[in-house]
Predict the structure.
Amino acid sequence: MPVKHTEHMTKFKNKGKDATALRRQRVEMSIQLRKARKDEQILKRRNISMHLKEENPSLGQDRPEEIVQLSLEEIVAAVNGNNTKLQLLATQAIRSMLSRHKEPPINQIIELGIIPRVVEFLGRADNAPLQFEAAWALTNIASGTSEHTRAVVEGGAIPAFISLLSSPHMHISEQAVWALGNVAGDGPLYRDAVFAHDVIPPLLALVSPATPVGFLRNITWTLSNLCRNKNPCPPLDAVQKILPILICLLQHEDKEIISDSCWAVSYLTDGCNDRIQVVVDTGILPRLVELMDNPELIVMTPALRAIGNVVTGTDQQTQAAIDAGVLAVLPRLLRHMKPTIQKEAAWTLSNIAAGPCQQIQQIITCGLLPPLVEVLDKGDFKAQKEAVWVVANFTTGGTVDQVVELIRAGVLKPLLNLLSAKDSKTILIILDTISNLFMAAETMGEAEKLCLLVEELDGLEKIEDLQNHENNMVYRAALNILEKYFSGEETTDLEPQTGPDGLYDFSVEKEDFDF
Amino acid sequence: MELSDANLQTLTEYLKKTLDPDPAIRRPAEKFLESVEGSQNYPLLLLTLLEKSQENVIKVCASVTFKNYIKRNWRIVEDEPNKICESDRIAIKANIVPLMLSSPEQIQKQLSDAISIIGREDFPQKWPDLLTEMVNRFQSGDFHVINGVLRTAHSLFKRYRHEFKSNELWTEIKLVLDAFALPLTNLFKATIELCSTHANDASALKVLFSSLILIAKLFYSLNFQDLPEFFEDNMETWMTNFHSLLTLDNKLLQTDDEEEAGLLELLKSQICDNAALYAQKYDEEFQPYLPRFVTAIWNLLVTTGQEVKYDLLVSNAIQFLASVCERPHYKHLFEDQNTLTSICEKVIVPNMEFRAADEEAFEDNSEEYIRRDLEGSDIDTRRRAACDLVRGLCKFFEGPVTGIFSGYVNSMLQEYAKNPSVNWKHKDAAIYLVTSLASKAQTQKHGITQANELVNLTEFFVNHIQPDLKSATVNEFPVLKADGIKYIMIFRNQVPKEQLLVSIPLLINHLQAESIVVHTYAAHALERLFTMRGTNNATLITAAEMAPFVEVLLTNLFKALTLPGSSENEYIMKAIMRSFSLLQESIIPYIPSVITQLTQKLLAVSKNPSKPHFNHYMFESICLSIRITCKANPEAVGSFEEALFLVFTEILQNDVQEFIPYVFQVMSLLLEMHKNEIPSSYMALFPHLLQPVLWERTGNIPPLVRLLQAYLERGASTIASAAADKIPGLLGVFQKLIASKANDHQGFYLLNSIIEHMPPESVDQYRKQIFILLFQRLQNSKTTKFIKSFLVFINLYCVRYGALALQEIFDSIQPKMFGMVLEKIIIPEIQKVSGQVEKKICAVGITKILTECPPMMDTEYTKLWTPLLQALIGLFELPEDDTIPDEEHFIDIEDTPGYQTAFSQLAFAGKKEHDPVGQMVNNPRIHLAQSLHKLSTACPGRVLSMLSTSLNAEALQYLQGYLQAASVSLL
């Protein structure tokens, strides 16, 4: 990332701070302690019988009572045998087991060693029912763990499924789309394997005004998985081919299609600035901002994520999001009843606040300070943490006048209250912010006033208390503020450090000077 | 060392010797152990001994030695040798857990500590089986073993509570959760079941509850960083059980001890913490459980007694309610009038009561009492928690809460009125309640700054506070007296001035109270009242208004210092300082007695200085006495010297480090009072002030520099004539200071004084050296601070010795030096100079270079003439350049150099800012215009042509403004 805010760097406040540290990509912890978030997009999906039947009337012929119960040995024998009828029955039986609601026996099926054979069935253009059953069964195996997906890929399924995309039978090509989505969703390795088999032309060819909504949802979901994952990002040429289709899909009226398209865009913007630029260049930001304001949570969430990612980029990219109107929507999102929305909105705002002071000014002008203070004051803790970042960045990059404006908005009270938060990092950032505030106050000769204000709001007591904090950095930051600003008239020591010496007698060797 | 019986025997003997009281035996044994601890097998020998030794004392000694050995040696520091050989490490890790678990408690504790030290380094990567090994013990059913495991786990995991989130940390936590969360949950459930099966077995219960406490603590650590999936899924189990434990009581677990919290209290207290953690961080998930906890905790509060042992539990519980009631979406849990009333009645009021323990502290441990009550170090007390709850409730329910409490206050006051000597505690509680209800924001400096408008503070003051203070007996009901005085103190900004004036004699009277708290509060209240500001920024209370009370105030203040327990009372000393400062010349008649008392005090405390604040204010008071007296009568300085020098000499001779910087400051003040030649008593001291040992102490540097400056101001010629041999030593000090980035500005203060005051001939021979030294620093380690000071210095030099002298000395050091300094330092950096006086010195100096330095007109330096002028105009007109290069961000630049010493340790010893060019030049812009005019008269045409060729238009415009203002023109 190039050094941003060159303009700021000449001002005193950013001195010594790394501008890149201000902008924070979404915290990409590879380790999570929490439950996987319910509002994230699903990585892999299993095709479960009941569900499928409702959605695909074309599969009406598939009545459960027709499925014959077979033992595992019988299945192996049938699949490996040459009797087409038995092959279909066995594959159907496998598919049926894998489609049951609870605990599908994926491991057991894999252990039968029949996957290569089932993959072979995908190529049986003469036998559409067998192709379909095989595709469905493999889809569900690929929907499991990475281990499971690997079994399918190593069975040679990727090229086979890609061929099936062009099947004359819509339900078969749809199943292929689904299977490929599961494979691509596994991670960058298989995603790129899918790309390597040239998935784009046949996949995109499926999108047309005539495509039924259900099918289109599947395609959109698979596209989103193709856009997903980093290290590395999906290949640029593929992204450039997918983007125009995504732009169209974002205009669709179906909320699930819009949702998955937004997720796709959010993945594409979750990366380096060059990738963000590719998305910005399509001119889609205004539409995304509009969708951020959509009443449907499943649309709002990924649209907000996408815009949130864009503003982790350069000042210009952030400006594009501002020009698209993001600041007009954020107040509502900061006040949203759902904590995760509040949190992501605050995170987005924190990155805008990391920009140059002109952008900070726009934050003020667009009325973001009152909702920001509300989040700090009574938001959910996750949102409060992000709001603390907003204030930290704001006070690092804002002008003195802007910082004054922030204090007038009432930020201090809730900020100081959060010093009793149970999170060391948050406390440290607040302490840094307080230092920033004091530096601004000093330039105006108002440091003493700020001291009183902090004390009145019970902040002094909290900072004093932090001298007992177990975390060393927190303790030192607190001590530093106390020594610098609150030692009052009782200050006794300046404690300068002793320098290198030994120069007690007055003499010196002359050297050549050249300044 | 081999694992042999012989070695075990040797080690046993040496361990025994380390316990010997005789150092002649103990020390060599310790030395020996240290010398062999690097040997292989040493730790294993210790482990063998602590397990198998015949003597218990050796077992314990071996375990302590082992733990200390681990503490010193286990960590592998990069680039340093590994101090424990790998096979020993492996063997220790393989054996220590079972060994710890099978050891008696005394040894178990040492080994548990050792495990956590090892764990901090090795866990989890280098000690992968530790967790499984621990978890397996949960099955043992032996709670002695289980508690050992839990305790070790707690010491391993508690760092999750304060460390920053990181991938590394979370990987570890995840690993711990995967292995530990389920067994811990099962253990939790099993332990609770055992508690009910053993409900009648006191000793079993004790062990089980110790486990539960540890389990609850582990829950807190494991849930701190984020809400783990496992605990979210099992929230029902944990919270339901926590909830029922909160409501549990068992007679067998109640302790007789009034002070020490019992197991039940500790457990409930931890559960409150756990609930508060969830409420704060995982509100969304915890919401369904929260109302139940509110009710349980509230009931807990209603049923918990007044004993000290419940304090932590009660204050934790109240704090939990306080934090919840402020949240908008839980408002409804409290808003019912009955709920509010019963919280007020059953939770708040009882916890505001003045308890026996408070009474004890008030009488026997008043210092601690004052610190808690006055300085707010009362965070964990019940009163404080209750007070926080009042404030929390007032956020949404100020009206109803105030209403409810008004009723209580009235009834408590009525109780008091019925029989004061029995019911005085009711009044105390009433005052506390009013105070906590009324104060919305508070600072030490101003007292209460925002008050609840629903409370009539003045009325309460007049009706209930003043009467107590007016009572003839100052020693009756001391607690109520202290309450009343504190009331005045904190509501001083709310109570009208006329009431404060009425209170002042009452406060002065209470300086005589026997109770330390009462007379301390009286002194503190007076001191605070004296610092209040009225209109025009003057003090609210004037010296004139205090006139009738001067004598009694001073008398009582000094008498208070003789009361038992208050001989070094910092509040009283601060009040003395503040009184002097307020009363000014009206204290002069009392000075002879005052200074005697102060010097006696000084002599007494210098034997063993222990109260830094007291000492500080004492010196401030001395400074004030000197200033106030000498302002009216400069001759009086001699009598102060007479009174003080004896004590000062003693302090310097005995090297009382705490006082030496103060002494230097007072001496500076005294010396500066002298109008004539420096007295010989000072000159005798001069050589001692240059002693390196003094300058090695950083705290001495600012006051010593200040003192030397005073010497130079008053006695430069005496030094030149009578102490010329000390000049190199003086300059040596300058060199010492200049060598340090932190102290170089102090070096410049000294150098500036030398240049300004010393007769030129006395420093002639050193001048070149001085510059070489400065150039050296400039070349090798220049900082912005240094450059700023350097620029001021060379310009001061120029003002004093002339521009030509400056040019000549530079060029004599190295050809073309003058040009280089102009071009590389002065012109580009002059903008950085800050400070009125500093800028003025630079302006006058540069003006001299421009107009009184012939080489600037007729050598190659001429090309620098216009750029220099432009830089000077920039100094006048452009805002100060405060950029500091990035790499300097981290060096300490707090003590920005002013021309005068910025060190203001003693506020009342401070000196006025000194302007060395004051008389010479009034307005530097006009001075520039006049000087340029003079120059152009001397060489007509030259100046104008230089201006017109290269001065930029804007600068030219400014310059024309100066010329106009000076009514001169250039030829």
